[in-house]
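One such shown below:

_____
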Amino acid sequence: MLQVINAITGKHSVSTTKHHFYKNMTDYKDYIIIKQSGNFFIVLPLEAQLQNIIEQHKFSRLSINNKDDVNGHLVDVCDGVLYKKTLKIFTTLNDCPNFSITLSCDGVPLFKSSSQSIWSLLCTLNELPPDLRSDHIMLTALWFGAKKPPMNIYLDPFVNECTDLHECGFDWVTSDGVHGTSKVYALILVSDSVARPLLQNFKQFNGEFGCSFCLQKGTLVERGRGKARVYPFEENTELRCQSQTLELVRRAVETSTPSAGVKGPSVLSPLPGFDIIEGCVPDYMHSVLLGVTRSITSLWCNPENYQSPWYLGRSIPQIDKLLLKIKPPSNVSRTPRSIKERRYWKAHEWLMWLLYYSISILKGILPERYPNGGEAQLFCLCSKSSTLSSSQEGAVSPNCCTCLSN
């Protein structure tokens, strides 16, 4: 393992033998060996990491929050309505630009055979260009334990530091000598459907009113030997908002019972300017790519549906022939695999299938009743005005097809 680490880093980063490794660590091992079991977490200051990132780049690469729109198109976070609205709310210090961060919290099992897991809190600086953003991910907290972390304890140091950085700001110097003092505010929370309700202090998706974005109660249905909560398609479902959620928090605290899925105040509520509803983004990977897209494609190919007019199982060899001929550009991380291996497809492969491959491949393969099946699938997933009938029938109006083909 030590040799592998040195091979990856391209230099002598660690000792090449266990003997030398332990010998070098003699002075420190008493401090890092945990002599009791339990749950632990560490906190890494955000301010020092922000200063370190900013001092590596010129100011012209950072001050992108005042740029003009590119023909009104949404290109990045800084073009969004929420970013611009929040930018106008907060005053600046000495005319220096404010900075915003996107935070992400998720847990991963330590081993497949262990209940222990690690939960990380990561932050990115939105004012960095996209090509630099992924190179400067800040780790601000790390939790280790057999259970999910109590968010009010785990995130409390981070929330306190963010509040201080917003009220007092922090000093920074860029690589070209520009210096200033700026405020910092948390803008966006990126998390999956398991971690998000813990952070919002909402009920999970399998409970009543378990959606983070609307007030649909959901329905229990029989599934196997038990029951599962589902959310049937409803038009004109009432969406959640910040002011309404604060009222639900008040009711939940007064009655000591959840109110419309809200259990109580969120640990993120004290963050200045953070919107607990609009600031959270849907779990695109699990709900769209590994969820709806995979489910629709599986229905198309499932032999149990052989009598359905949209069944594609007989056309799998033809689909594979076209799919495996595709030569994507080098920025696509995975080349196409057979649709027979779709159970092993990763999220990025489903993304390419949804947005690019299926639109051209399924033309002429799906029956005429379902023209442009890939476009229908994409439209139903992306359109704000799609209805239950359109999603069931897979039908797309001619205008929509024209729009998508352009």
Q: What stands out?
A: Confidence is low (pLDDT under 50) at residues 384-406.
